[in-house]
Amino acid sequence: MGLAVFDIGGTSVKYAFWQEDDLIDKGSFPSPTTWVGMKQELRRVKEKYAEQYVVEGVAISSPGAVNQAARVVEGASALPYLHHFPIYDELEEMFGCKVALENDANCAALAEVWKGSAKGLDNVLMVVVGTGIGGSVIINGEVQHGAHLFGGEFGFMLLNETQTFSQLGTAVKMAQRYCERKGYPIGTVNGEEVFRLAETGDDIAAEEAEVFYQSLARGIYNLQYSYDPDLILLGGGVSNKPDILEQLEKRFELILKQVGIAPFVPKVETCYFKSEANLIGAVYNYMQQSNKIRGTENETIAK
C-alpha cells in the first residue's frame, strides 16, 4: 500500500510511487498544454501503479497558491488551466481516492522539515532563490499559508525605497544588471559567469556580485529578526554555489556591526533535497492532511 505522487511543473511532471518510506518506480512526462491532456497522463500513471501496488491516495506538488480549505488552486502559474475551478473534486472523482495538493515551494520546505536539513525543527523558513525570491514559512511543523495565501512570498519585501528582494537578491537579476551596464544583450552572460568574472578582476562583475550578496544577506537578516525561526534554509540554483554560506556569513557580520543591538547571526543552511524535494514534501503534506481529517472525524464521533 502506498501513494501515487506527482510534481507538476511548467515544463514536465515528475512522478513516483511512495512505498515503505521510499520513492520507487519513478518517471516523468512533458507537461500537457490542456487540462484534459494533463488528466489523461495523470490517470495513465495512476492506473499503471494500480496494476502493481495498492494505491491508497494521490499526493501532488503543484504550482500556484493552493487553497486547501476551498480545494482550489488560486493565483497563477505557467499552467493556467490548473487554476480557479474545483480541481480536488475532479481529481478525486477520476482517481477514486483521496487527493492532497500543496504548493511546490511549500512541498520542498516540508521535505526538509520531515527528512532533510531541518529534520526535527518546528519553526523554519525556506528562501528559494530563482528568477525571483519565493519560499515557505513552517511554524510548529506546518505550512503557514497566510490570510491571502502569500505566506513565504518574501520577494515582495522592499530592501530600499524602490527595489524588492526579488529585484536585488537573485543571481538572475545580477546577471541582467551586469549585461545592461556592459551594453550586452540580456542573457548574454548568466549568474555563474558573473561570479567567475568577479573573481578574475572584472570591476563591474565584482560590484554586481556584491549587490547580490549584500541584498541576499539583508533579506535573510530581516526574516530572521521578524520570525526568529530555528533555521533558514536556502534553496534554488544559487544554493549549489560552494561558498554561498561563507559569503553570507561575511555580510551578516557587517550587518550586525552596523545595527549594533542585534545579538546573533542568522543560522542558514542549504537544502538537502534537490530534484526529489517536491515529491517527498507532497507525501508529507498528504500525511498531515490525512491526520487532520482523521482528527476531525474522531472529534465528530466523540460528540
Automatic annotation (TrEMBL):
What keywords sit in the KW lines? Kinase, Transferase
Q: Which Pfam families match?
A: ROK
Question: Which InterPro entries does this one have?
Answer: ATPase_NBD (IPR043129), ROK (IPR000600)
One Gene Ontology MF term: kinase activity
**Protein family per UniProt:** Belongs to the ROK (NagC/XylR) family.
Q: What PANTHER family does this protein map onto?
A: ROK (REPRESSOR, ORF, KINASE) FAMILY (PTHR18964), SUGAR KINASE (PTHR18964:SF170)
Name of protein: Sugar kinase of the NBD/HSP70 family, may contain an N-terminal HTH domain
- What is the organism of origin for this protein? Desemzia incerta
